[in-house]
Structure formats: C-alpha cells, structure tokens
Specification:
The chain contains five helices and two strands, in the order βαβαααα. By secondary structure, it is mostly helical. The chain has two domains: 6-64, no CATH class; 80-158, no CATH class. The longest helix has 26 residues, at 133-158. The N and C termini lie far apart (59 Å).
Length: 159
C-alpha cells in the first residue's frame, strides 16, 4: 500500500462517507484502522480523515457529489508511517496509565511521562493527530499524577 494516500474528507460522519466510497469500489484508509491491532481499544475523539489512493481522488469526489470538506493542510498529506508510530507510542502511554493504578505508580508514572514527552514532541511536528490523541493526553496527565502518588506511597512505607 502506498503511503501517499490523499485526504479527501474529514468530519464526525467519516464512517458513513467511507461506507459509501467502499460501496462504489474506492479503497479507503482511516488511521483508526490500526487502533485494534495496536491495542488501542478506545474510540476516536473528534473528526477522522478519510484517505484514498491518489489515482482515485477524482472518482471519490464524483461519488460524494462535490469536493467535500478537506482536512486542514490537505495539500500536505501526513506521512502515514509517522502517524502509525505515533499511534503505537500513544497506546504504550495508555497502558502505562492503566498500570499506574495496579501497584507501581512511581515507575509507570515516570515511564509514561517519558513516553508522553516523546509523544508530544512528535505530535507537534505533524499536521495530523492520531484519532486517539485526546485519550493520549488524558493518559499523560494520569502518568504525571502517578509520580507524586508513588512517591507518597514510598514515603509512607519507609516511615
């Protein structure tokens, strides 16, 4: 699969539009397609972009009836591989946030914060965000809160 797919539509009803395109035989790609394989069981927050191969863009626009709302920065399609890597990093952060409630909050909080800083730096460089971006930000906050909790538990156990 080419990583130069073109974003043609971005809205909260992207799944409906995707179904219409695929019914007419136009292959589509949404970044949330990888969520299940990456262990990201949370639903996307906000709008999701639909990507089609460059040679099928005109056909997709014809099926949709006009040029639909394009995502911001549609002239510069995001690098698909970088978004997949960012999605994987976000999944790790969410796992660490959950683990911070399971007995080792200081270690998982520190690791989650480390990955969170990497995630935020990489996300700042891209025009698009993974569909789980909102949940990743929540997980980074949980990891940050786990550090003082873990430190307090250690102080309590040492006393």
């Amino acid at each position: 699969m080419s990583k130069n797919w073109i974003p043609i539509y971005s809205a909260s009803d992207a799944m409906v539009v995707r179904g219409k395109l695929e019914a007419f035989g136009v292959p589509t790609l949404m970044l949330s397609d990888n969520a299940a394989r990456l262990g990201a069981g949370l639903a996307p927050i906000g709008n999701e972009a639909i990507y089609v191969p460059p040679d099928r863009v005109d056909e997709a626009h014809e099926i949709l009836g006009s040029t639909p709302a394009e995502p911001e920065g549609a002239d510069d399609p995001p690098d698909y591989q970088e978004l997949v890597e960012l999605t994987k990093l976000g999944a790790r952060i969410r796992v660490l946030a959950v683990l911070s409630f399971c007995g080792i909050p200081l270690l998982t909080g520190l690791a989650g914060t480390y990955f969170g800083v990497r995630y935020l730096n990489q996300a700042a460089e891209l025009r698009s965000r993974p569909t789980s971006h909102g949940w990743n930000l929540v997980a980074i906050g949980i990891c940050l809160l786990a550090i003082p909790v873990g430190t307090g538990l250690i102080a309590y156990w040492m006393a």
